[in-house]
Design a protein that fits this description.
single chain; about 650 residues; alpha/beta; FAD/NAD(P)-binding domain; Recoverin, domain 1; 3 domains; 4-stranded parallel β-sheet; 22 helices; about 45% helix; EF-hand-dom_pair; calcium ion binding; EF-hand domain-containing protein; EF_hand_dom; NADH dehydrogenase activity
């Protein structure tokens, strides 16, 4: 072998060794640079399976614990308790008769002596609350247990959350989610409930006449005695003399909402039949709402939502196509008590939704198949129009119910045509002082200053010269604000008012000048609206005041209670216990179909889904119990996932 070949082989071997060394070093560097604990696919799969198993196991354990908790609850709440020898006063089973009509007087109730606590409360002053609405619940909420022997008289055994009745009318929420039994609300006060209708009152003997239904179904009247009585019976719908209102629905009670829901669903079922003519289908699917206030607007919005979200999915498409919703309003705008911006926003929303808004129109009559209304044309001439329909909702104003009218007929100075007139302390004008109160839709706070004219002059005219100087006028203004707090805003410019009506510029108001001033100020004062917010605030105010009167009475009597405690109780003047009622407007709101509007006086808020959820949150918070809050939340979830219930029961 030559020397040249040996050198060639040696060079080749060196190159191979160098390549091998470089590869080994590269592998070492790659291994060194890799993450020390980089998981493999198998390891990641094991970790995911581990946490999935833990989640499933914890869910099973959680459900098991919930089930065990329910079982334990049932074990401890279910018992076979037998009640033997329950004490009942003989007078509760066979009441004495008396009063102008010689009726049974329920001076002792069946459960007045069933335990020691009941016996103790039966000696307390008797407080009777007539009605089960917002005002009545406000009173009960603020009373303390043991202050009174409380009795609630109402036709329904439950309280209804009325603002959501339009939602219940189309099945957005369940009827059960809007009602709370009055007996459960009364349990905290150890109170009593009598299902019946108040028909008369004997103020001289402090007796309330109640019409009840006996075990045989017959009507029977009885008297319920009281020391103090709160009238909170609400109102009925105003007819405005329109004929044919028996063909309309109203929306004030649970029964009204159920009837409306049945009619709407029946209309769609009949419209789906192949034998229904096109003209009849259009009439069946025409919905007319008379009244552009919150109730009418929200009902129209709920019907529209129902058609968009449920009818279009489960009924023939032609049913949704033929639906027409008409809203008739006598004023120029709907929601006319709200700000102008809100009215325009709601009208624009309804226009996009093809809801027919008919403003500046008056309903002339309602037949079983048509709604007649009048409207002035461009020439100022009144024209009559007709809408074929099989559904009409009447929601236009309020009127007295029969018991409210009976109370006003008994008192000569009750001149208001729609409600019982009360003073600033919510006492019924003309009734025995401190015994009869009225709140809510059935009452209106007096706004006339004229009836206090002589008293105001007597208190302010200190020099008895028959004229009111400016210093005396300032004293009079303070007295007016005490009597009628709603006049405060109209008496802000004290000096300017004085100078305006001092026509002869003698720095004094003659009696005729003062009289005209008081008349004009009284005419500018507006009555409080008939809303749930007003009724609730009045009820809470009155409940606090009655609680304060009870506390003051106990302090004056040294904490001792006897059978005559209510006599001293009535002698306590309301003015010495509490300030006059003053309403604080917290804002108005309305639902307009996947959107809502809020009117806070100087500020307004309008929007879509965000506003709608704010609207829901406010009403959810206003529920009277945790039970109804839970049910309401469940209803909204069910509606969002599975839609509304379309069954007719």
């Amino acid at each position: 072998m030559s020397l040249h070949m040996v050198w060639a082989r040696t060079a080749l071997a060196r190159r191979q060794l160098t390549t091998t060394t470089v590869l080994r070093r590269s592998n070492i560097r790659w291994i060194a640079s890799a993450p020390p604990n980089s998981p493999s696919l198998l390891q990641r799969t094991k970790t995911a399976a581990k946490y999935t198993g833990l989640f499933c196991l914890s869910s099973v354990v959680g459900l098991a614990l919930v089930g065990a908790g329910i079982l334990v609850h049932d074990v401890f709440t279910y018992n076979e308790q037998h009640l033997d020898g329950v004490p009942v006063n003989p007078l509760a089973l066979d009441p004495e008769r008396g009063g102008p009509k010689n009726l049974p007087i329920a001076s002792v109730l069946v459960d007045d002596e069933e335990d020691e606590r009941s016996k103790e409360i039966s000696k307390k002053p008797r407080l009777v609350v007539v009605g089960g609405g917002w005002g009545a619940m406000g009173v009960l909420e603020k009373l303390s247990p043991g202050d009174y022997h409380v009795t609630v008289v109402a036709t329904d055994t439950f309280n209804t959350f009325t603002p959501l009745l339009p939602s219940a009318a189309v099945g957005t929420v369940s009827i059960r989610s809007l009602i709370e039994p009055i007996r459960k609300i009364l349990a905290r006060l150890h109170g009593h409930f009598v299902q019946g209708k108040a028909v008369d009152i004997v103020m001289s003997e402090r007796l309330l006449e109640v019409e009840t239904i006996t075990a045989t179904g017959a009507k029977a009247n009885l008297y319920i005695p009281y020391d103090k009585i709160v009238i909170a019976v609400g109102s009925s719908s105003a007819t405005h003399g329109v004929p044919g209102l028996e063909n309309c629905f109203q929306l004030k009670t649970i029964g009204d909402a159920q009837s409306i829901r049945h009619r709407i669903l029946h209309n769609f079922e009949r419209a789906s039949l192949p034998t229904t003519t096109p003209e009849e289908r259009k009439r069946l699917l025409s919905f007319v709402i008379c009244g552009g206030g919150p109730t009418g607007v929200e009902t129209a919005a709920e019907i529209y939502d129902f058609c968009q979200e449920d009818i279009v999915n489960y009924y023939p498409k032609i049913c949704r196509k033929e639906v027409s919703i008409h809203l008739i309003q006598s004023r120029e705008h709907i929601l006319n008590t709200y700000s102008e911006d809100i009215s325009k926003f709601a009208e624009a929303k309804f226009k996009r939704d093809q809801v027919n808004i008919i403003t500046s129109s008056r309903v002339a009559g309602v037949t079983p198949t048509h709604v007649l209304y009048t409207k002035k044309n461009e020439k100022g001439e009144t024209e009559q129009h007709s809408i074929p329909t099989n559904f009409v909702l009447w929601s236009t104003g309020i009127a007295m119910n029969p018991f409210t009218r009976r109370v006003t007929d008994l008192l000569p100075n009750q001149v208001h045509k729609k409600a019982i007139e009360v003073d600033a302390h919510l006492r019924v004008n003309g009734a025995p002082a401190g015994e009869v109160y009225a709140i809510g839709d059935c009452a209106t706070i007096e706004t006339s200053l004229l009836r206090h004219f002589l008293e105001l002059v007597e208190e302010a005219d200190q020099d008895r010269n028959g004229k009111i100087e400016f210093a005396e006028w300032e004293v009079m203004v303070k007295k007016i604000k005490q009597r009628i707090p709603m006049a405060e805003d109209h008496l802000a410019e004290v000096k300017q008012l004085f100078e305006l009506y001092d026509s002869n510029a003698d720095n004094a108001l003659q009696l005729n000048e003062l009289l005209q001033l008081l008349v004009d100020v009284g005419n500018r004062i507006t009555s409080l609206p008939a809303t749930a917010q007003v009724a609730s605030q009045q009820g809470k105010y009155l409940g606090k005041k009655l609680r304060a009167i009870a506390r003051t009475d106990r302090e004056q009597s040294g904490g001792e209670a006897d059978d005559d405690s209510h006599t001293k109780f009535r002698s306590l003047a309301d003015e010495k216990i509490a300030q006059p009622f003053k309403y604080f407007h917290l804002g108005s709101l309305a639902y307009i179909g996947n959107a809502a509007v809020f009117d806070f006086g100087k500020y307004s808020f309008m929007g879509g889904l965000a506003a709608m959820y704010a609207w829901r949150s406010i009403y959810w918070n206003e529920q009277v119990s945790a039970r109804t809050r839970a049910l309401l939340m469940i209803d909204w979830i069910i509606r969002g996932i599975w839609g509304r219930d379309l069954s007719i029961v």
